[in-house]
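User: For my dataset I need records formatted as: sequence, then structure tokens, nothing else. Please produce one.
Assistant:
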Amino acid sequence: MLLLYIIFGVYILAVNFYAVTLIKSQRDECGDDQSKMHAGDGKLILCALLGGAVGIYASMFIFKYRLKNMMLMILMPVIAVLNIYFMIVAFKSGFTFFVT
């Protein structure tokens, strides 16, 4: 059981690390070109749904990037709350919902 907790924790850390590097790479790639600004929204939303919403939302403020994009500013906290809720449920249940 402890191994399952460790694997899940490492997964969440890895997804959030990828989310931060994704925001940084998009910021570096875009620069001042406004036409490329919305090119990676699908990647960000997918990464958020996989558990990286907290990393995306925090890195948006750290890098001061995409703060005017209202879809991301509203969607990321909602997905982050859902991610945290599902993590709490998973840890409280002891991951018993995986076993049939």
